[in-house]
Design goal:
The complex is a heterodimer of chains A (514) and B (358). By secondary structure, chain A is of the alpha/beta class. Chain A has helices spanning 47-54, 77-83, 100-107, 110-113, 116-130, 145-157, 175-190, 202-208, 231-239, 299-307, 329-334, 355-363, 376-389, 406-419, 436-451, 463-469, 492-499, and strands spanning 7-18, 21-32, 36-40, 62-67, 70-72, 85-88, 163-167, 194-199, 211-216, 219-224, 257-266, 276-284, 288-292, 314-319, 322-323, 337-340, 369-370, 373-374, 424-428, 455-459, 472-477, 480-481, 485-486. Chain A is elongated and about 75 Å long. Helices cover 69% and strands 2% of the residues of chain B. The chains are: A alpha/beta (514), B mainly alpha (358).
Chain lengths: 514, 358
C-alpha cells in the first residue's frame, strides 16, 4: 500500500433502472484504501443494487467505475474477484452437505488452491490470523449462522483482497459475534483492505465506520463521518430530507384506553426474528399513535403479536379490558381489531383472486356470510362500494388484486379494514410505495376513522407520515420500545435518538436482537 | 424459436390445454400402434370408439366413471388447496379391505341398515387411512406427497394379507380371493341388463356437493385462499390445520365410497387386483378437468374410456392391458407439457423492432 491512502474505488454517476423504478440514480462515491465505508439507507433505497453492480452481478445502465484510479468495466463476479474484490451476501451461498474446505474449494479454481490438503492448511492459517476460528472438516449444516458467515468471509480472504463488500452482515449475528466481526474488520482495514459495509443499524455504523454514504430512493442524500455525526442527523439523512411538518390535519381527542400491552416479551422463533422485550403500550380511543423505527427492529413481530399470529412468552394483551391471550385471530377481529399488514401482496391480499374475494378475505368475520354460506352479491356490493368510496382505480370488483398498482391495492385493503368499523386498527407501513395522491387519501381516511373513536396504531419508517398523523410518537429499536410522548414533546432529534436505541435504561445493552 | 413468459396467464390455454393434450395423446397413440405393427387408425378406433358402439358400452363406461368420479371429487378439493393427496389409491384399497370384511360379516344378517353400514364402514376406513397422512402433516409437517404414496403400498399389502389370510374363501380352492358377497350386501343395480349401480348417483350427487361447496361456502373460499397464498390465509385467521384435516378426511371418505362402489358393485368380492389404479387415474381426472366439478365429470369419462379401450385392445389386438396405463400416462404427460403454455408462449421468430406483441 502506498502512503496517503490512495483511492481504491470510485463510482461516478452510476445509474440503474428496472422496469417501473430507478434503483440507483447518478450515485457517486469514493472509498479509500484501508477505509471502512458504510452504505446506509432504508429498505429499497438501492444499497444492494449498488453493491451488485460493484461486484459485477448486475451491469449499470450508465456511469463509471474507477478501480485504483483506472476506469474499468466489470463483466462479472469472476472478474471482480480477479481484481481483488470479495463479497459476502446476506443469504449465504454454501452447500449444507459439504465440508468447509469443500465449499471453499468449489469457489476457487484448482489453480488457486493447489491441493485440497494445502487449502485446508490455508483455511486454518487465515482463520487464526483474523480470529475466525473454524474447523475446516465440519459440514456446513452443523455450523451456526455466525460460523457460516465466517466461512464466507474466509473464502474472500484467501485471495489477495483489496475490497470486501458485506451486505448487512450483522443482521443474523448475536451481539458477541457482532463485536468479534467488528474487531476482525478493523484488523483487516489496518492491513489496507477497504471495506464496504451495508447496514441500516446506526450504532454499528458509528462503532465501525470511517465514512458513511447515505442513500435514499436510489440517490445519495449525504456523506458524513459517523463519529462526528449524531444518530439523529443520520436518521434524518436516511429517512427524510428536510421534514416539512404539515399541521393541516387536526389533532385527535384521546378517550378511554382500548388496547393495552403490558410487559410483553416474545422470544424469536426463527433466525431472523427479533426478540421483543418489555413492551408496554397503551392505545387510546380517538388517537393515532405513531411508531418509528428502522426496518427489522421488531415491527413485524409487534404486528404479528397484536394480530394474533405470535403468542407472547410473557405479559398480557387486553382489548377493552378483555384479555386477548387465548383469542384466535378471528376472535380478535370479532372484538374489533383490524390489521393492515406491511406486505399487501404477500399477506394482505391474494393476487390471483378478484377484489370481491379479497374483500371477503378479512370481511367474512362480520359481513357477507350466513350459516357458512357466502352471500356473494353482498360481498361484491361492498367491494364495489370500497372501490368507489376510497378512490380505488380498478375496472370493478371482478378485477384481480394482482392487476392493481400498489397504491390502489393499499387503498382497497385499508378501505376493507375500515369498513369493518374496527375499534382498534393497526396500520403497518400504510403508505409504503404508494403515490402521493393515494397517500393523502389514506391519511385522511385514517384521521376520519380516528375521529369516529377508533384507536389507530401507525407503524412506519416514514417520519413525515408519523409527524403528520401521530398524536403521540415513539420508536422501536432492537425489539424494545422507547418512551411514547405527545408529538409536541418529541423533536426530530429525540425521535432519531430513540430510533438508534438511545432511550434510558435500555442503553447499556447494545440495542440489538438475540 | 423461444419460450417467453406471458404478461398474464392465458385463460384460453387453461381450457385448450386438456384438448390439446388429448389430440397429442391420440397422435402419439397412433404412432405407438404403428410401431407395434398395428394399423394406427383402425387401432385407435378400436381403443376410443369401439367400446362405445352400443348401450352396453356406455353403461360400462358409467361403471368405470363411478369410482373415478368419487375419488376425483375428494382430490379436487385437496388440490384446490394445494394439498397434494396422492393417496386416493391407498385409501381406496384400505376401505375395500375393511368394507369387504364388514360385508362378509353381514352375510347372514338381513336388514335395511346393512348397506348403509357397509358404505359407512368404507367411508370411515378411507378417512382413517387419509387421517394418518393428515396427522403426520399437521403435527409433524411431513410432506403429504411422500406419506400418502407410502401409505398406498402399505394398503395394497394389507389387502394381499387379507385375501391370502383371514378373508380367504374357505371353499375357494385356496385362491387368494374372498367368498362372493351375499346378494343383499351388494349395491342395487339400476337395471338388470347392466352392471351400473346406485353408486353412480352417489358420485353425481357428490359432484354437486363439491360444486356448491366451492362456489358458495366460506369453507370453499378458505380452502382456495389456502391454496393460493398460505400467508394471507394465516393473516386472515383461517384455521389451516382444521381445513387440512377436513380435506384429507373428505377425500379419504370419497375414496372409501369409491371402493365400496367396486367391491359391492361389479366385482362382488375381494380380489388381489381389486383397484385398477382408480386412485391414481383420478389425479389425472382432476387435472384434465381443470379442478372444476363439471370438468371432472367429462375427464372421468375420458379416463374411464381408457380402461374400456385397454380391454378392447387386449381382445382385438392382442396387446397387454398395460396399454391403459400407457394412454393415461401420455394424457398426463402431454397435459403437463401443454399447461406450460398457460404461463408461457412460444415465439416462433424474432420480430422486428416496433412490432407490438401482446
Amino acid at each position: 500500500m502506498s502512503q496517503e491512502n490512495p483511492t481504491r474505488l470510485e463510482l461516478i454517476g452510476i445509474t440503474k433502472a428496472y422496469p417501473g423504478c430507478v434503483a440507483n440514480d447518478a450515485v457517486s462515491l469514493k472509498v479509500a484504501a484501508g477505509e471502512i465505508h458504510a452504505l446506509l439507507g432504508e429498505n429499497g433505497a438501492g444499497k444492494s443494487t449498488l453493491m451488485k453492480m460493484i461486484y459485477g452481478v448486475v451491469k449499470p445502465d450508465a456511469g463509471q467505475v474507477l478501480w485504483n484510479n483506472k476506469e474499468i468495466a466489470i463483466e462479472g463476479p469472476a472478474q471482480a474477484r480477479a481484481l481483488g474484490m470479495g463479497m459476502v451476501f446476506q443469504h449465504f451461498s454454501l452447500f449444507d452437505t459439504l465440508t468447509v474446505t469443500e465449499n471453499i474449494a468449489l469457489y476457487l479454481s484448482p489453480a488457486e488452491y493447489g491441493s485440497v490438503s494445502a487449502l485446508r492448511q490455508r483455511i486454518v492459517e487465515v482463520g487464526e490470523e483474523y480470529g475466525l476460528a473454524i474447523n475446516p472438516d465440519r459440514e456446513v449444516h452443523t455450523l451456526s449462522v455466525g460460523e457460516q458467515q465466517r466461512v464466507e468471509i474466509i473464502r474472500c480472504l484467501l485471495q489477495d483482497i483489496q475490497l470486501l463488500i458485506l451486505d448487512e452482515p450483522t443482521a443474523v449475528l448475536t451481539p458477541a459475534e457482532v463485536a468479534q466481526l467488528i474487531d476482525m474488520l478493523k484488523q483487516l482495514a489496518r492491513k489496507g483492505c477497504s471495506i464496504l459495509f451495508i447496514s441500516h443499524k446506526l450504532h454499528e455504523v458509528n462503532a465501525l465506520c470511517d465514512r458513511a454514504t447515505i442513500l435514499r430512493g436510489g440517490k445519495v442524500t449525504g456523506s458524513c463521518i459517523p463519529s462526528e455525526t449524531s444518530a439523529g442527523e443520520l436518521a434524518k439523512l436516511m429517512l427524510g430530507d428536510e421534514l416539512v411538518l404539515d399541521h393541516d390535519l387536526p389533532p385527535g381527542n384521546a378517550g378511554a384506553t382500548r388496547l393495552t400491552l403490558c410487559d410483553i416479551e416474545v422470544r424469536p422463533t426463527s433466525q431472523f426474528a427479533i426478540h421483543l422485550h418489555n413492551i408496554n403500550l397503551e392505545l387510546k380511543a380517538g388517537e393515532i399513535l405513531g411508531l418509528a423505527g428502522v426496518a427489522g427492529n421488531g415491527q413485524d413481530e409487534l404486528v404479528d403479536l397484536i394480530n394474533g399470529e405470535l403468542k407472547p412468552d410473557r405479559g398480557t394483551l387486553t382489548l377493552d379490558d378483555v384479555a386477548l391471550a387465548d383469542c384466535s385471530i378471528v376472535a380478535r377481529r370479532r372484538r374489533g381489531l383490524g390489521t393492515v399488514p406491511a406486505d399487501r401482496v404477500g399477506r394482505g391480499s391474494v393476487a390471483s383472486m378478484s377484489l370481491t374475494e379479497n374483500q371477503l378475505l378479512t370481511g367474512y368475520v362480520n359481513h357477507g356470510v350466513r350459516h357458512s354460506l357466502v352471500n356473494w352479491a353482498a360481498v361484491r356490493q361492498r367491494a364495489a362500494d370500497i372501490i368507489g368510496d376510497y378512490g380505488v382505480k380498478a375496472t370493478g370488483p371482478a378485477s384481480m388484486a394482482g392487476s392493481l398498482s400498489g397504491g390502489n391495492l393499499q387503498k382497497f385493503i385499508i378501505g376493507r379494514e375500515i369498513e369493518q368499523q374496527p375499534k382498534v386498527l393497526i396500520c403497518f407501513h400504510p403508505t409504503w410505495g404508494v403515490d402521493v395522491g393515494a397517500a393523502n387519501h389514506i391519511h385522511k381516511e385514517l384521521v376520519a376513522l380516528r375521529d369516529r373513536g377508533t384507536a389507530v396504531l401507525v407503524i412506519s419508517e416514514d417520519l413525515d407520515e408519523l409527524y403528520l398523523l401521530g398524536d403521540r410518537l415513539g420508536a422501536l429499536c432492537g425489539g424494545r420500545l422507547s418512551p411514547v410522548r405527545p408529538k409536541a414533546e418529541v423533536p426530530l432529534e429525540q425521535l432519531g435518538e430513540w430510533m438508534a436505541g438511545a432511550f434510558g435504561n435500555a442503553q447499556e445493552e447494545v440495542a440489538h436482537a438475540h | 424459436m423461444r419460450i417467453e413468459k406471458r404478461l398474464q396467464p392465458s385463460q384460453t390455454m387453461v381450457y385448450l390445454s386438456p384438448i390439446l393434450a388429448l389430440v397429442l395423446t391420440v397422435f402419439a397413440g397412433g404412432l405407438l400402434f404403428a410401431a407395434l405393427g398395428h394399423p394406427p387408425l383402425e387401432s385407435l378406433a378400436i381403443f376410443f370408439i369401439e367400446p362405445l358402439r352400443d348401450t352396453y358400452g356406455w353403461s360400462e363406461l358409467a361403471v368405470k366413471v363411478t369410482p373415478l368420479l368419487l375419488c376425483a371429487t375428494g382430490l379436487t378439493l385437496c388440490f384446490k388447496a394445494k394439498i397434494w393427496n396422492i393417496g386416493a389409491e391407498g385409501q381406496f384399497v384400505f376401505a375395500a379391505l375393511i368394507g369387504g370384511a364388514v360385508s362378509l360379516q353381514l352375510t347372514e344378517v338381513q336388514g335395511f341398515w346393512v348397506l348403509p353400514v357397509i358404505l359407512l364402514s368404507g367411508a370411515l376406513a378411507g378417512m382413517a387411512w387419509a387421517g394418518i397422512a393428515a396427522l403426520l402433516l399437521t403435527h409433524f409437517n411431513t410432506n403429504e406427497i411422500l406419506t400418502t404414496i407410502m401409505l398406498n403400498y402399505i394398503a395394497v399389502n394389507l389387502l394381499l394379507w387379507g385375501v391370502h389370510g383371514p378373508l380367504k374363501d374357505p371353499a375357494g380352492f385356496n385362491f387368494p380371493e374372498s367368498a362372493l358377497f351375499a346378494e343383499h350386501t351388494l349395491l342395487p343395480l339400476l337395471s338388470f341388463d347392466y352392471r351400473v349401480t346406485v353408486a353412480l348417483f352417489i358420485a353425481l350427487f357428490m359432484v354437486v356437493v363439491i360444486w356448491v361447496l366451492l362456489a358458495r361456502s366460506l369453507l370453499g373460499f378458505q380452502l382456495r385462499v389456502l391454496g393460493e397464498n398460505r400467508n394471507a390465509a394465516r393473516f386472515a385467521g383461517f384455521n389451516s390445520r382444521a381445513i387440512i384435516w377436513f380435506l384429507l378426511l373428505f377425500s379419504g371418505a370419497m375414496a372409501g365410497l369409491a371402493a365400496i362402489s367396486e367391491t359391492n358393485g361389479p366385482v362382488g368380492q375381494l380380489i388381489p387386483t381389486l383397484s385398477l389404479g382408480y386412485g391414481y387415474a383420478a389425479i389425472i381426472v382432476v387435472f384434465m378437468g381443470r379442478m372444476h366439478p363439471l370438468g371432472i365429470v367429462l375427464a372421468s369419462m375420458l379416463l374411464g374410456l381408457t380402461y374400456l379401450g385397454g380391454e378392447m385392445a387386449q381382445i382385438d389386438l392382442g396387446l397387454p392391458k398395460s396399454i391403459t396405463g400407457l394412454f393415461q400416462g401420455m394424457l398426463l404427460f402431454f397435459l403437463l407439457g401443454c399447461d406450460l403454455l398457460i404461463h408461457y408462449r412460444l415465439v416462433l421468430k424474432e420480430r422486428a423492432f416496433g412490432v407490438a406483441t401482446t
